[in-house]
Design brief:
With 704 residues, the chain is mainly β. It contains five helices and 55 strands. The strands form 14 sheets. Strands 35, 38, 39, 41, 45, 46, 47 and 49 form an eight-stranded antiparallel beta sheet that branches. It has a six-stranded antiparallel beta sheet with strand order 1-11-10-9-5-7.
């Protein structure tokens, strides 16, 4: 966006020279358009007829575009592309990002006049798409996932005369794809009212004496960094540049030369290839042509930090004894940095459980009580040193429950017990990727316990409560950085109220990385509530819209699990009603998991909090393997304080003559009135075995 525009007074003769390019019709707008809006219409030449529309084309995969609204009007509106964008000159190249100052002329769109007499010109169209098509392929030069400012070249062609005439213009846009719901902002637009006369992108009026539209800005960098300072200016003829520097606050500047660490001193961009503390100065640039000169103001101050550390600073760790712990810092600066780690203010060296003591990553291979204490890093360069904040290391001790032991025995990579009753930290007792509770999070709620028919947990097992529509009631955790497509998510949930699109364990980050367990409000259960349990992987709409057909009951603890392999995924819900599962055959590309993970919300649709889970969540574990059905069931069984050593023989049920016939391949048939038992052998039962249907509820399983 233009800033710090500087215009100098000019004589009438100078203005007249500028007017040789015609008069510019300019309009400031600053109007934002969202994907759900109808768009913004504007009249480029202010003749009372709408010429163009900026909008997201919902009939074409919500592509952002600029549209010439009436192809029958005189003059006819066109969106202009570059001369050549791909070797094959196909017509799906899209609209490029045009930088400020680009000259828009008859050469810009090949030959607009041929359009006027009916010839096909694939580079001049009534509609130009900026970013992506329905297959997520780039068709323009507007980057994905970014907030991009740029210009689009426009033309109005009058084909009522022969030869046809063309008037050129531009529209200044901001396309913001960093938001959950992308937006476009129409900043301003302009039109050259003299036919067949060029206009420059960003030009607001006659130009002769240089004008500065964007001055260089203050910068703070680390020693050794390459620094670029830039100015955005326009003049006719094109201006020349001279960069100058002086002591901070002095107001006295001397010309810089292309020597040593400095280059580009006579261009719009000054480059300092190796910033040192000596280059802490004020910088200005003089922009001039035959009609006059202007100097940037205020000066841009360059501050050079001798040495620094960037986030994240080392995180506090609470890890199970015997598991590894890692503390990490990030150096900033382009010069050589030496790191060393301290423990309780004493220097560490590699050996025993410690490694990486002189790097940015300190690893403790197996935590034990002798490692407790405070850790910090010192980063040093030739210009000085800086010390990180202190990161305490604590040890988590097993509570003796069978469920906890089973999670660990299955090799969990991350384990959030959610047992905290106060504070803001949600500890990852295995992976150290801690979370931070929102300010309105409710902690210390009863989780699965012996009092709720789960003797595999301790009586003081707690859970966290999440509430719909509360952006401060969710749990973001540090990125797991799994880089895998074999993973299993597990969690205990106690749903309350309707869930809609509530998330359970989810992440949304770079490169369309959208993965996790959620409710899908598009599919209601038999009670007309909730959604079925679903999942997402990548940006695959087919996966997101898959109906699993399974859901969890309200006001009851259930174990939910998502086990993903490269070729399929299985969802499980296990509770007192039995085992529900559903398999989706789909390709699951490797995902990085390099962005914030969320427990208790689905962060993709609307503002955070809009799709929170309603109820309690407990015992979230992440495994870097695809757990088998037997392994998933063993987790639930351990909550019942039962050990599953071998997979149970599958039981097939069919209706034969009004009875239920059970068939199995081996083992003893057991029955129980509830999933939690008691389980008793069925006397003299052999396969096949018939059962008369009754109103009583019976559960069957086999025992090897």
């Amino acid at each position: 966006m233009k800033a710090n525009k500087t215009l100098l007074a000019a004589s009438s003769s100078v203005l007249a020279a500028g007017m040789a390019h015609g008069a510019i019709v300019y309009q400031s707008v600053n109007q934002t358009v969202a994907t759900s809006d109808s768009g913004y219409n504007f009249d480029l030449n202010t003749d009372g007829t709408t010429d163009f529309k900026v909008f997201f084309d919902n009939n074409n995969a919500s592509k952002p575009c600029v549209l010439g609204t009436d192809v029958t009007s005189v003059p006819t509106p066109y969106v202009l592309n570059e001369l050549v964008m791909t070797p094959d000159n196909t017509d799906n190249n899209g609209v490029p990002v045009i930088p400020f100052g680009t000259t828009i002329t008859s050469q810009f769109d090949v030959d607009t006049n041929t359009v006027a007499v009916g010839y096909t010109d694939q580079h001049s169209k009534n509609e130009g798409y900026l970013y992506q098509n329905g297959e997520n392929n780039t068709v323009g030069q507007w980057p994905a996932g970014q907030d991009t400012f740029g210009f689009v070249a426009l033309a109005l062609v009058d084909n009522s005369v022969d030869p046809a005439t063309t008037n050129y213009g531009w529209v200044h846009l901001e396309l913001n794809y960093t938001l959950a719901l992308p937006t476009m902002t129409v900043i301003d637009y302009a039109y050259e009212d003299t036919a067949n006369t060029d206009i420059r992108a960003g030009q607001e009026g006659p130009i002769a004496i240089p004008a500065i539209y964007g001055s260089p800005t203050n910068q703070t960098v680390a020693a050794g960094t390459t620094v670029t300072m830039s100015v955005v200016a326009m003049g006719d003829p094109d201006p020349t540049y001279q960069w100058m520097a002086g002591a901070v606050g002095s107001g006295i500047y001397t010309n810089l030369a292309n020597a040593g660490d400095f280059s580009g001193v006579n261009t719009s961009s000054l480059v300092i290839s190796n910033a040192t503390p000596a280059y802490r100065l004020d910088y200005v640039v003089s922009v001039s042509n035959d009609n006059g000169a202007v100097t940037s103001s205020p000066p841009a101050t360059l501050t050079v930090i001798a040495v620094g550390l960037a986030g994240p600073v080392p995180d506090q760790q609470v890890i199970y004894a015997g598991y590894p712990a890692q503390f990490t810092v990030t150096d900033i600066g382009g010069v050589t940095t030496t790191n060393r780690w301290l423990w309780n203010n004493a220097g560490l060296s590699d050996g025993g459980a410690f490694s990486g003591t002189t790097t940015t990553n300190l690893l403790i291979s197996s935590v034990d009580p002798t490692n407790l204490g405070n850790y910090k890093a010192i980063a040093s360069t030739v210009y000085g040193s800086v010390t990180s904040s202190v990161a305490p290391l604590g040890i988590a001790y097993p509570d003796g429950s069978l469920y906890e032991a089973t999670v660990r025995s299955l090799g969990a990579a991350h384990y959030y017990r959610l047992n905290e009753t106060s504070g803001t930290n949600a500890w990852d007792f295995i992976g150290g990727k801690n979370g931070t509770y929102g300010t309105s999070a409710v902690l210390g709620q009863p989780g699965p316990t012996p009092d709720t028919a789960f003797p595999g947990f301790v009586s003081t097992n707690y859970a966290a409560t999440f509430q719909f529509l509360d952006p401060n009631d969710l749990l973001p955790v540090a990125p797991w950085n799994l880089n895998t497509n074999t993973v299993t998510f597990t969690a205990w949930i106690y749903p309350q109220f309707n869930q809609g699109n509530g998330g359970i364990v989810f992440t949304a980050g770079t490169n369309n990385m959208v993965c996790g367990i959620r409710y899908d409000g598009g599919y209601l259960n038999s009670s007309g509530l909730d959604g079925n349990i679903g999942y997402s992987w990548g940006n695959d709409f087919g996966i997101q819209s898959w109906n699993s057909g399974i859901t969890a009951p309200h006001d009851e603890w259930s174990l939910v699990a998502l086990a993903v392999s490269p070729t399929d995924a299985t969802l499980y819900i296990i509770n007192s009603e039995g085992v529900q599962s559903a398999v989706n055959t789909a390709t699951h590309p490797v995902q990085a998991f390099d962005a914030t993970e969320y427990i208790g919300t689905y962060p993709l649709e609307g503002a955070l909090g809009n799709n929170n889970f309603n109820g309690q969540i407990d015992e979230v574990a992440i495994f870097t393997s695809t757990l088998s059905s037997n392994q998933v069931y063993s987790l639930y069984a351990s909550g019942l304080n039962q050990v599953v050593n071998q997979p149970p023989s599958p039981i097939t049920l069919t209706v034969v003559g009004g009875n239920i016939q059970l068939e199995w391949t081996g083992g003893t048939l057991l029955q129980a009135p509830n999933l939690s038992g008691p389980w008793d052998p069925v006397p003299d039962a052999t396969s096949p075995y018939s059962v008369s249907p009754t109103n009583s509820r019976l559960f069957f399983r086999t025992q090897q």
